[in-house]
Write a structure and sequence with these properties.
This protein has three domains: 234 residues, P-loop containing nucleotide triphosphate hydrolases (Rossmann fold); 208 residues, Rossmann fold (3-Layer(aba) Sandwich), CATH 3.40.50.300; 63 residues. It has 20 helices and 20 strands. A six-stranded mixed β-sheet has the order 5-6-7-3-8-9, with helices on both faces. Strands 14-17-18-12-19-20 form a six-stranded mixed β-sheet, with helices on both faces. Strands 2-1-4 form a three-stranded antiparallel β-sheet, covered by helices on one side. Helix 9 packs across helix 10. The two termini are 43 Å apart.
């Protein structure tokens, strides 16, 4: 088995805080490894060290000679002035250079230049790689390769960074939260891509379905050490439970034995103790083991929900649009007590806009929002956490309240309540700027829940929260005596929490589906299969109609080169069609000035000219 990376005796400290020590790790070709730990334990720091981005405080990392690593940071660093195409192909390998030049020749529309680049692609046998690149870009919805990085949203930038890592064709991929800012379709595609590609990877992710399907090794970073489990996430859960039971059993045995040994120590005369030195030493070792208690780093969401009356929330005929883009169209719904809804749809369809309208942060163009008098919203927003980085953790929380009411009706001080959310006393006076991204999200969750809401609205709550926190949050929401609306790309989270799904179908239309996410997805698959069967049936029926000749002769199949051409044409047509549709939307929304309108119209004509010969050739090849 080929070893790609070896880490020996790795140590990392941040100030006085020990993150981990005695870390030994070997990554072999074909491994798909996930690192699991609570936020702040050092997952990202470990990836930084393994990638060579940072040096360890002790120990060493060695790599296979010539090994190429691609690293996706949790907060990617991109050149804001670059076009997407320049950012994606900034490495100067022959393959990436020729594909960048070929793509630019396609966009130029100059057929002579295109022919030259086609020959260069042939010479380097770059077509397979080019097809793979286009599939990645298409699936991640990066169709306008001339867009400037600085004009993109945070989610688009994360997708560009992910695409860049994937197209670099590295030996080892290091990925820090690769599913953040991806919609559900993208995540499911990425799963299949990793399963089928045979890539070697090590990643940090909270997506448990992703972990279970993709990874074959789980590394748990706990108590400053790394424990390896050879198996997927389900196997890890089974083995971890057995280990905890075994540890508890061993501790109980040690306690029972300690009692008898303690009795012996007390009864033995002092004058004879020199004769039982080894047994006395064993006694003190046993005492230490009997007193050992595994540190329970478990978040405790024990927050009370405000009393909820009969009238909750009534939405009537809501309509909302921006720049002629319809986000809501005549949407009505009445919420009942204790219902929990998921909200799904592609990025940019208007999910967050609906949440803002419900909570009063935005207003509909038409329609009404009637909120019950007893409703107390707790809105966990996706955009950003508005904390003063120079404040201490405890001061940020005290700005909201000095105390919190928990489920049993008791009142806790802020210091006591912060312990529930894994902020022990030594962390209370830490500056917020020194917290990890996940710790900031946990602090934000604390500030939302401490207001005792009875209607929780959670917009992407799973981003940057560790698996342990997610498990506890899921259990809390399952028994929550109030209403919940969740927008999340975490399918496991949706399955455990929601009882029905609002699906954004596009053009502002929302459909209500009774069931969790897996049931919803299964229904979508069934509908897609039925659609294919209907289309196939119609084709067969038309071929058997009187007067329509049916050609029985067997046609010659495509050559290898023609198959590659056909695959390339299919992807090129998809990308050009996507850009064409985008331009048509811009032209029709009426917001472009005359100069921009001219440029977009000109580009539209160029795309049509590029599409026509490609579609004709595609049809010609498809006949084979």
């Amino acid at each position: 088995m080929v070893s790609y990376l070896q880490a020996e005796n790795i140590l990392r400290r941040i100030g006085e805080n020990l993150l981990f020590e005695n870390i030994f790790l070997n990554i072999n070709k074909g491994d798909k490894i996930a690192i699991i730990a609570v936020n702040g334990a050092g997952k990202s720091s470990l990836l930084d060290i393994l990638s060579g981005r940072e040096n360890p405080d002790g120990g060493s990392v060695s790599l296979k000679r010539g090994l190429k690593i691609s690293y996706l940071l949790q907060s990617p660093i991109l050149n804001e002035e670059n076009k997407i195409i320049d950012e994606l192909f900034c490495t100067e390998s022959d393959l990436t250079s020729v594909i960048r030049d070929y793509e630019e020749s396609i966009f130029s529309g100059n057929e002579k230049v295109v022919q030259v680049m086609v020959q260069r692609m042939d010479d380097l046998k770059a077509w397979d790689y080019e097809i793979a690149v286009k599939q990645i870009l298409f699936k991640l919805k990066l169709t306008d390769l001339n867009a400037i990085i600085g004009t993109l949203s945070g989610g688009q930038k994360k997708r560009v960074a992910l695409a860049k890592v994937l197209v670099e064709n590295a030996d080892l991929l290091m990925l820090d939260e690769p599913t953040n800012h991806l919609d559900l379709d993208m995540i499911e595609w990425l799963e299949e891509y990793f399963i089928k590609s045979g890539k070697t990877l090590i990643m940090v992710t909270h997506d448990r379905y992703f972990l279970d399907r993709v990874c074959n090794v789980i590394l748990e970073l706990s108590e400053n050490e790394l424990v390896r489990y050879d198996g997927n996430y389900e196997y890890f859960l089974e083995k971890k439970q057995l280990k905890e039971v075994s540890d508890q059993s061993n501790t109980e045995k040690a306690k029972n034995l300690f009692k008898s040994e303690l009795d012996w120590m007390r009864r033995m005369p002092k004058a004879r103790r020199h004769k039982a030195k080894s047994r006395i030493e064993s006694f003190y070792d046993l005492k230490e083991r009997a007193a050992k208690r595994p540190e329970e780093k478990s978040i405790n969401i024990n927050v009370n929900a405000s009393r909820m009356g009969k009238k909750i929330l009534v939405l009537k005929n809501l309509t909302k649009s921006y720049d002629d883009k319809i986000l809501l169209k005549d949407f009505s719904y009445t919420f009942n007590r204790f219902e929990k809804a998921g909200l799904v749809g592609r990025n940019g369809t208007g999910k967050t806009t609906l949440l803002n309208i419900i909570t009063g942060l935005d207003s509909p163009d038409t329609g009404t929002v009637d909120r019950g008098e007893t409703v107390v919203f707790g809105y966990y927003r996706q955009q950003r956490i508005e904390f003063d980085d120079e404040m201490t953790v405890i001061d940020a929380v005290k700005n909201i309240s000095e105390s919190v009411v928990i489920k049993d009706g008791n009142v806790l001080s802020i210091s006591q309540f912060m312990n529930y959310f894994l902020f022990p006393p030594q962390k209370h006076y830490t500056l917020i700027k020194k917290l990890s991204g996940g710790e900031k999200r946990r602090l934000y969750l604390l500030t939302v829940l401490m207001r005792n809401p009875n209607f929780l609205i959670l917009d992407e709550p799973t981003n940057d929260l560790d698996i342990l926190t997610l498990n506890v949050l899921e259990d809390y929401l399952a028994g929550f005596r109030g209403c919940v609306i969740v927008v999340s790309h975490d399918r496991y989270f949706m399955d455990k929490v929601v009882d029905h799904i609002f699906e954004y179908k596009g053009d502002g239309f929302i459909k209500d589906f009774p069931g969790n996410y897996s049931q919803f997805r299964e229904k979508q698959s069934e509908d897609a299969r039925e659609s294919v069967i209907v289309r196939t049936s119609k084709i067969k029926d038309s071929a058997s109609l009187p007067g329509i000749p049916v050609k029985k002769e067997k046609k010659p199949g495509m050559t290898f080169k023609e198959k590659k051409e056909f695959e390339t044409l299919s992807i090129e047509i998809e990308i050009l069609e996507s850009e064409k549709k985008l331009i048509e939307e811009k032209i029709s929304d009426g917001t472009l000035n005359s100069e921009a309108l001219y440029e977009q119209s000109k580009r539209h004509g160029e795309i049509v000219e590029m599409l026509n010969p490609r579609e004709l050739r595609w049809l010609e090849l498809s006949e084979k």
